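Progress note, sequence design subtask.
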């Protein structure tokens, strides 16, 4: 994480302040993180997001308040309700991952992953195609993450997170294939 923050600072994306932490710069030049991420392969974007979320899960298992975890469980329950109706909500999925990161207690991680999520969503919009049935399969694992964190079982939460990653790769590959056949 230190190396990544140093690189982001060198690229003018993050500013670090002794004793206060690292923050995304408010004014990022034309060579911003969004533009840089737009040039990256979607699997690379997803892998970076997953690594950061894994750190957040480890931190959440140690540091999250019961109230933060309760909110995460509520969002997971909403995702399950929608999934039972055959609906995958990108908005609720984003809320879940945002709350997961907030449970990890780092505003820098939140900002970084939100940029990655936005880039991945842009990427999926460009790819087109339909992978909703695959993304619906991720919903039980969202609940598993929330439940494991409530029990402070980081290993179980990380295992569930790994299943989401595999299904996300499957969904993105399916959309890429559909895009190539058009």
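Output:
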């Amino acid at each position: 994480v230190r190396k990544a923050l140093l690189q982001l600072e060198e690229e003018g994306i993050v500013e670090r302040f002794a004793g206060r932490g690292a923050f995304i710069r408010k004014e990022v030049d034309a060579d911003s993180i969004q533009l840089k991420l737009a040039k990256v392969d979607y699997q690379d974007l997803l892998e970076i997001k997953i690594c950061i979320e894994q750190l957040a899960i480890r931190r959440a298992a140690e540091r999250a308040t019961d109230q933060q975890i309760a909110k995460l469980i509520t969002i997971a329950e909403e995702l399950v309700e929608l999934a039972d109706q055959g609906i995958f909500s990108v908005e609720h999925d984003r809320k879940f991952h945002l709350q997961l990161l907030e449970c990890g207690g780092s505003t820098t991680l939140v900002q970084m992953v939100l940029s990655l999520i936005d880039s991945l969503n842009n990427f999926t919009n460009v790819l087109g195609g339909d992978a909703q049935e695959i993304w619906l399969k991720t919903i039980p694992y969202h609940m598993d993450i929330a439940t494991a964190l409530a029990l402070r079982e980081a290993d179980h939460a990380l295992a569930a997170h790994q299943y989401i990653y595999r299904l996300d790769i499957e969904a993105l590959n399916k959309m890429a294939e559909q895009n190539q056949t058009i």
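The chain has a mean pLDDT of 80. Work on this subtask will continue into the next period as scheduled.
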